[in-house]
Write a structure and sequence with these properties.
The complex is a heterodimer of chains A (139) and B (505).
Chain A (H helix, E strand, L loop, with lengths): L1 H27 L29 H32 L4 H24 L9 H5 L1 H4 L3
Helix pairs in contact in A: 2-3
Chain B lengths: L14 H19 L6 H25 L10 E3 L4 E3 L1 H24 L6 H20 L3 H19 L6 H32 L4 H6 L6 H18 L8 H8 L2 H26 L2 H6 L4 H21 L4 H21 L7 H31 L11 H4 L1 H15 L5 H17 L4 H28 L14 H16 L4 H16 L1
Antiparallel strand pairs in B: 1-2
Helix pairs in contact in B: 1-2, 1-4, 2-3, 2-4, 3-4, 3-10, 3-14, 3-19, 4-5, 4-10, 5-6, 5-10, 6-8, 6-9, 8-10, 9-10, 9-13, 10-13, 10-14, 12-13, 12-18, 13-14, 13-18, 14-16, 14-17, 14-19, 14-20, 16-18, 16-19, 17-18
Classes of the chains: A mainly alpha (139), B mainly alpha (505).
Chain lengths: 139, 505
């Protein structure tokens, strides 16, 4: 059971550090209430608008497509590593080594073609963005 | 028997699932060529032909003896990650049948819908997942197939985007599904921690009793995952919500095919990976857990169904009750056998695939007509639509287990199987008694619907009701099979018993 005591002690210290830091800074800091502290932080720029902006749903679509092809890459790597040794060993034919991966990529391409044709990669402009085009284009 | 050699191309043993996957891809290609096409005959036709082809391949494999002990036994694929035996083919048939019926019925039901190809391709992807679940032989493939079946189902439940009920049902189904997936995958990790393996036979070979606590908790979490997929207590409460809000053909699909697929992985995992004799020695008596779950599930399902006024909710709770009946298949497994009762549970799921799908498709027909949702709204429908109402009566009496129909025989075999197992484990007498009492109770609410349709007078005068060809065809086909499965029960029972004996023995 003594391993569990060690884990418990670790958890205790893990809780103690952030709580302690917050408590110490609460005791040490001067209190200067100021309204600009409540303003949205935009990297030192003067904030424009509120924080509750609606993002275009297409960020999500692009992220989704990215994940699909990210996974594809992850699965391609181990295959690429063993591809040449597998062929040189003579135990598999070219079709057996290449076929499954081509099929896999082809299935993903069908999906991409479908998403493309159904407008997933067509970037629609939101009305807000069209209105404030000039403002957004500033350097 | 046809001589059939798969030794060169073993992966073709997955044919039924591959056909479903290809059909889904064909639908994607069609929708890429004609985006947002509402050419219903073509998309519904592709889906129907694909699922019927999958059914044909599965039946052909069964007749040809694929996976039969006489032709070399179960076919292992990818180092035992997938296995095609008779049980896998049996459940591939169930999935393909339900998918075909639902695709035909959806032709009329989804008539004004904007996302035609999406609907059918999601359905076929889910069916692919369920078909692969039937053959999964490792906790990894089981989990992947389970997710492949679940994710499209969430979207399908919520596919009526402008219908509040549908979206709400989809959200509830998704949240509970995500929770139970998390529990399930955590259970897998605990089993892996206790045995060091994920492949089912390897787990069974490595049960050494060193980490019994870990294993016990893991098994309990796996049971929770199965309970969600099969809509059994304690994870049954999503079923009435999801089935009520979903389009009725999707309710039929989920409550028949998805439930059967959940049962097939439960059967395989518990008979292959956790043999009862070893697990009982370790103090993890999962049969006892299933005895309790079976009794509670059938009682909760039937009592809740008896109090419903909404027909779809009644059917949803009745489907919970039937999950309880099918759980007897696992509850009555004993150390020295149980293939009779396991085979009976498989048969019940096949018959259920027809009668329950048919019953939900009748609700789909009523929604198509727009007659309303409660029992009173169904009053006197038989005067305007006698054929569909004869079919409804067949489904209801078969679900209740009245002698001439398929549902009686599968329940009868479950009952005799449970009684036989009771000689070893007296607790099963309680299960058998619960089965009889609940069936008697279920007759009350099933016959209430039949009475409303045939005897009561309509509350309001209705206009003449149309006869949508697709919905009628699916309902009549399901009704015909529910009746003619009786003379055909010999071969079906033989197949189910063989499959169960292979698994248990």
């Amino acid at each position: 059971m003594n391993e569990w005591i060690a884990i418990g002690a670790l958890a205790f210290v893990g809780l103690l550090i952030p709580l302690g830091m917050m408590a110490v800074s609460y005791l040490l800091r001067p209190s200067v209430p100021e309204t600009s502290k409540r303003a949205t932080y935009e990297s030192g720029e003067v904030p424009t608008g509120g924080t509750r902006i609606r993002f275009n749903i297409q960020y999500y679509m692009v992220a989704l497509l990215f994940v699909v092809f990210d996974i594809e890459t992850v699965l391609l790597f181990p295959w690429a590593v063993i591809y040449r040794p597998a062929l040189e060993s003579g135990q598999v034919t070219l079709l057996e080594a290449l076929g499954p991966m081509l099929l896999f990529v082809a299935i993903l391409l069908v999906g991409l073609a479908w998403a493309w044709r159904n407008g997933a990669v067509q970037w629609a402009k939101s009305p807000h963005r069209v209105d404030s085009q000039a403002e957004v284009d500033r350097p | 028997m046809v001589v059939f050699d798969l030794s060169e191309w073993t992966w073709t043993a997955m044919g039924p699932a591959l056909v479903l996957a290809l059909t889904a891809l064909a639908l994607f290609v069609f929708d890429s060529i004609n985006p947002r096409s509402t050419n219903r005959p073509v998309v519904a036709g592709i889906a129907t032909v694909g699922s019927l082809a999958s059914l044909g391949v599965a039946v052909w494999y069964v007749l040809a003896g694929v996976g039969h002990p006489d032709t070399g036994g179960a076919i292992d694929l990818f180092g035992g990650q997938l296995v095609v035996d008779q049980m896998a083919l049996f459940f591939m048939i169930v999935v393909a049948v339900v998918t075909a019926l639902v695709s035909i019925a959806s032709y009329d039901y989804m008539r004004d819908h904007a996302y035609q190809a999406e609907y059918y391709s999601l359905m076929l992807l889910a069916a692919t997942g369920m078909s692969v679940m039937a053959a999964s032989n490792s906790l990894v493939t089981i989990f992947i197939a389970l997710e492949l079946a679940s994710l499209p189902s969430y979207a399908l439940v919520a596919i009526l985007k402008d219908n509040k009920g549908s979206v709400e049902a989809g959200l509830k189904y998704f949240l509970i599904g995500a929770l139970s997936s998390a529990i399930f995958v955590y259970g897998i990790s605990l089993v892996y921690g206790a045995t060091g393996h994920l492949q089912l036979e390897a787990i069974a070979a490595n049960l050494d009793g060193e980490y019994n606590g870990l294993l016990g908790v893991g098994v309990l979490m796996l049971i929770a995952g199965f309970a969600f997929k099969t809509a059994s207590v304690p994870f049954h409460f999503w079923a009435p919500e999801a089935y009520e809000g979903a389009p009725a053909p999707i309710s039929a699909f989920l409550s028949s095919a998805s439930k059967a697929a959940g049962f097939v992985i439960a059967f395989r995992v518990f008979t292959t990976a956790f043999p009862l004799e070893t697990m009982t020695d370790f103090g993890v008596d999962w049969a006892l857990a299933f005895i309790i779950l079976a009794i509670v599930t059938m009682t909760v399902g039937n009592f809740a169904a008896a109090t419903q006024n909404n027909v779809k909710r009644m059917l949803a709770y009745s489907s919970v009750g039937h999950a309880g009946y099918a759980l007897i298949g696992l509850a009555a497994l004993t150390v020295d056998g149980g293939e009779l009762v396991l085979g009976a549970a498989m048969m019940h799921l096949l018959v259920y695939g027809f009668m329950n799908t048919g019953a939900f498709l009748f609700v789909a027909l009523a929604e198509y007509w727009g007659v309303g949702r409660t029992f009173e709204d169904y009053n006197g429908l038989a005067r305007q639509a006698p054929i569909a109402c004869v079919a409804l009566a067949i489904f209801m009496f078969s679900l209740a287990g009245i002698p001439p129909f398929g549902g009686f025989w599968s329940k009868y075999f479950l009952f005799t199987g449970a009684l036989e197992a009771a000689t070893v484990n007296p607790a099963l007498l309680v299960v058998a008694a619960a089965l009889v009492v609940n069936s008697a109770l279920s007759l009350y609410y099933y016959s209430r619907l039949v009475k409303a349709v045939w005897i009561e007078d309509p509350v309001l005068e209705r206009e003449t009701l149309t006869q949508p060809a697709g919905l009628y065809a699916a309902i009549v086909a399901a009704a015909v099979v529910t009746v003619v499965i009786l003379p055909g029960f010999g071969p079906v029972a033989e197949l189910a018993y063989d499959a169960a004996a292979m698994l248990v023995g």
